[in-house]
Structures are given as C-alpha cells and as structure tokens.
Amino acid sequence: MSEAVEAHVRAFFVGHEVDVVDVDMGTRRDVVPELRVLVVGPGPRGGGWAYVTVGCWALVQEDGCGVEFVMTSAQRHQRFVDLMAMVAYYHCGGHQLDLEHSLPIGEPWVPGSTCDQLLVSLPYLHGPDFEICPMPGGHARILWTLPVTTAEIEYRREHGNEALEQLFDDAAIIPTDPFRASVV
Fold first, then answer.
1. What element of type H or E holds 105?
2. Is pTM beyond 0.85 here?
3. Do the beta carbons of residue 143 and residue 67 sit within 8 Å?
4. What is the total count of domains within the chain?
5. Quick check: 13 pLDDT over 70?
C-alpha cells in the first residue's frame, strides 16, 4: 500500500526530486514498522520542501480510509524527517490525529522559533488534488502538520479552528517561516 502513496506523491510533484528516507525508529519501530518519509525538493509546484509520511495509512484506517501527513519548510533538514517520524509514532501509537487536532512537540520547531506545536490542517499549500490519495479499497488523506505557537493553540481552543485560520489569513503568514510572529 505504501507504493500507492509514493506513486501519488511522485505524480503530484512531477518535476521535483523525491528522496525516500527510511526512518530509524529504534525500539519504537514496532509502532510504525514500515515508516518512510518522502522528501520532496523545490520544483514547479513551489520553492519549498515537503516531507510526507508513508506507512501510517495501513496501520490506522477505517473502511479503507486513513491518513498520512505532510510538513513544509523552506529548507531540507533531518529535523523535519524526525518531526514527521514523531507525528507518525504519535498517530499510530494510539492518538489518531485528524483535522483540527494538535500536538506539542516539546521544543521549538527549529532553534529560535516560537512555534512549538503542530496543528493538523488541510494541505492548503498543495490543494485538494494532493490531499486525496487513492488506495485499493479506499483512500488516504494527506493532512498538513502546520507549526504553530502555544498561544495560537490556546486561541483555537477558545475561539475555534476557523477563527485561528482567519487570523493566519489576515496576517498573511508564511507557513514555512519558522521565525514568523504569533498571530495572537
């Protein structure tokens, strides 16, 4: 099944270099035994980097529908592969992430960033053609893990996800900028 996710990502990002990174989960390997992260380089669809999990869909699905995750950044770095492994472990380890869920990452997204949480959202940077990945007997949704601040998560809890996304739009955030100011 992971072949279908990889084929979908490669077809969507045609003209981009796509590397397959096997993730060393160490003793946690049994939670996501075949986890890989596709690292998509800059190209015709955009100048940033995309990191896409492969291996979550097969483990946590209902009626043939499950999820994989994408993170975007302005640069290539092992840090983002590691974060995607953390997301996969969290999701497959019993927390089942979905739209509007969040998770703390326990430290800044990158050193010096105030973004220390991830918000699961629609993959706005890539669109609906990327979001739905056909699978035998179902599909995988590829959801975006957007780095956000603790204050933004607190605002979302009080005012709702749509209100937070409106603040992102109003501030015209650059979601790949780890040093962006909090919108609240």
1. none
2. yes
3. yes
4. 1
5. yes
